[in-house]
Amino acid sequence: MVEIFEREGDVSAAWRAFSLARKYGCELPESINSEIDRFAEAVGAIAERAHQGDHKATIDNETVGKIWKNHKNRDSGGAAFRARRDYDIAVAVERLRRAGSSASHAVTIICKRHGVSKTTVQDAMKLHADIRYMGTDELDAL
Fold first, then answer.
1. Quick one: which of 11, 71, 129, 134 could link to 138 by a disulfide (CB 3.0–4.6 Å)?
2. How many CA atoms lie within 13 Å of 27's alpha carbon, on the beta-carbon side?
3. For the chain, how far is it from start to end, CA to CA, in angstroms?
4. Using an 8 Å Cβ cutoff, are 95 and 113 in contact?
């Protein structure tokens, strides 16, 4: 989740990393702590204004949504989805290659199965190059 947040800026990944770190007592990198602080400060500032009598200071769904959006002004969650999709694509290509398909044929098949471009498949293979070094049992368990 940390990697997804740092690479894509997906706020939901930062919050998931925060939740897991609290649950398991792990340290978090400054990038995650800064995002949690940014969100808490923004919501807290509105709450403080409301407590001081500012009747226009309300925290509704739209306000939280604006605060939640990442730096690319996208809804959160997409990067986490893409990260999992890319991993699944890389695994699928490797399975086809081990079954005897050439790399280019495996890419073509996966493009059709997943409805993605050749570039998406190639990028997924580069991002998850370590999958090539998995044992057969490990790959089959995925």
1. 134
2. 2
3. 19
4. no
Say which residues have a Cβ less than 8 Å from residue 57's Cβ, sequence separation at least 6.
46, 47, 49, 50
Instruction: Give dist(CA 96, CA 20) in Å, integer.
Output: 34
- The count of C-alpha atoms lying within 13 angstroms of the C-alpha of 110, restricted to the half-sphere facing its C-beta, is 29
Q: Is 131 helix (H, G, I), strand (E, B) or coil?
A: helix
pLDDT tens profile 62-88: 888 788 775 555 555 566 677 788 989
Kindly report, residue by residue over 47-58, the tens digit of the pLDDT: 898 888 888 888
Indicate the domain borders of the chain: 2-68, 78-140
Nearest to 61 by CA among 44, 43, 35, 73: 43
Give me the phi and psi of 65, to 5 degrees please.
-60, -40
Taking the CA of residue 130 as centre, how many other CA atoms within 13 Å lie in the half-sphere pointing to its CB?
Answer: 4
The whole-number pLDDT of residue 78 equals 64
| DSSP per-residue string spanning 71-133 | TT-PPTTHHHHHHHHHHHHHHHHHHHHHTT--HHHHHHHHHHHHT--HHHHHHHHHHTGGGGG
With contact defined as beta carbons under 8 Å apart, do 35 and 14 qualify? Answer: yes
